[in-house]
Amino acid sequence: MNWKVILNIAKTHLLTKMKSTVTAALGVTFGIGAYITLVSFMTGLNEMLDDLVLNQTPHIHIYNEIEPSKNQPVSLYTKFEDALNVVHSVKPKQSQKKIHNALPIISYLRKDPNVRGATPETNAQIFYLSGSIELGGNLSGVDIMEMVRLSNIQDNIVEGTPEALKNNDNGILLGAGLAEKMSLSVGERVQVSTITGSVFPLKIVGIYQSGIAEIDNIQSYTNLETVQRILGEAENYVTDINVKLFDITQAESMSNRLEQQFDIKATDINEANAQFETGSNIRNLITYAVSITLLIVAGFGIYNILNMLIYEKMKDIAILKATGFSGRDVQLIFMSQAMIIGAVGGFLGLFMGFILSKLIDQAPFNTEALPTITTYPVNFNIGYYIIGIVFALISTFIAGYLPSNKAKRIDPVRIIRGT
Amino acid sequence: MKLVLETKNINKHFHKPKDFHVLKNISFGVKEGEFASVMGKSGCGKSTLLYILSTMDTDYTGELYLNDELITGKPHQELSRLRNKHIGFVFQFHYLLSEFSVLENVMLPAKKLAEKSHTEIEHDGMEKLKMLHIDHLAKQRASRISGGEKQRVAIARALINNPTILMGDEPTGNLDSHNSENVFGIFKRLKEEEGLSLLVVTHDEDFAKRTDRIVQMEDGRILG
Fold this sequence. Notes:
heterodimer; A: alpha+beta; 17 helices; B: six-stranded mixed β-sheet; four-stranded antiparallel β-sheet; 7 helices; about 25% strand
């Protein structure tokens, strides 16, 4: 095969028909550019929404579930083994909220190579007192520095710092909704009361805003020891353990194992966010459907223009064949034109997509719900660029193959005869 | 004398619009260094015969030999190569690639053959153009030169691979008498100086009379 000659002819055709070449290449460019922009923007948004929920959820959440005993005492009694036993008004089993042996479980988890971190958490139902008004809420005692390491809580602390909480024995990161309702700001004090009625003053060292109003209206954070002291419980009083893994796919099997091993309730991230996952899958599906449509439209553009080009070049094809070029050579000439258009248009498309993504990335995007986000989220994943260029090449290959196959079959005699 | 081109019992039918027997038992040959012309009325099948001889048309029965080698039935790829190397073809209408320069048009078949380096091909191309007195046009676009010049470029292109035989399908049919004379002179010189075999289909009786041999065709048969 004589590539130099073939490419030279292809080049001359493309350069002398600059207008249609540019039109065809621009078709690809816009298709690929729009694909890159769209997919980057949409997956960026998806990722942001995913993060919003998923980063607040530990990969495995360990706690004690209040639930009725699966085995009622009557079933243990062998004399009624064959009888149909009906128990009315089943009550939950009397058990403690705290996780039994929480501290040994944590140190066991921390030794697991797949565990990035395991943090204790003690949740307490409390009331925030503002004059005579009591606002119900939830106070979580956490190891704040571990939380910073393992989750994106730092992004949600809109005022103050996590260090300030760590250094203050009576500090609290007050939920943004609560702060607004009670007209409180950093440096002031808030009184909280437990269910049993004891009242504690806490100093506001920061404001916590998750972006989800329901959470911000009830949730506040403090140190683990502070909550234990408020509740009057010992240092081993831990109601929840949050586990982050290195490999999230292991979450389900590991949570099942932990349930069996320690006789506790463990939910993994997928279980906790099943409906969320469906939403994000559908969003991804829409993204793909739109992108494929764009790429196919670009492909048709190339097909059209090459088809036209081949009709215009009928006579040239006949000459080439008459002077000794084979059908395959002619096909390669037109195929290489298609591939050149595809490659040039595709790479320009990647570039255009990148520029547009950059522009979107700079565009301001302020919303109450998302305190830490100031511009539109864009996902600059190299994978989409690879998919874009590969699809550009594949679609131009197909779009070029069909017309060039026709050129291959053209009978030079018929054209020279003019029939 | 050795035959460079020979046919044995070539028959061809056109199937559309209805079955038509164009060529009937054509058997003839062209000798080495012979300048033969084919004459006949329009529609007698002379162009059809030429396309079969040039290997472009493969839809026929019978046998075609080029340099005593059976060509009939060879795959298209192989036929393209043979056409490239051994057959030079000049059409009635010049048929140059209009986007390329004159020199590029001439060089193209040699580049396809790829037996010589680019500089050698360029040198050969210039030689052929010089021989036909059109070397001053080498860098011109093929679409920018006159009809007579185009036909001479087409001849130069047909000669670039030093073919065994040069075929022409009414090469002077579209030219005025001055240019016709010019083209005939070139053919004559090629035969005499280079010993090239030529086979030219023509309507022009004056042209035919001055060739070595006239093959008369009528209704798909060769007369005499």
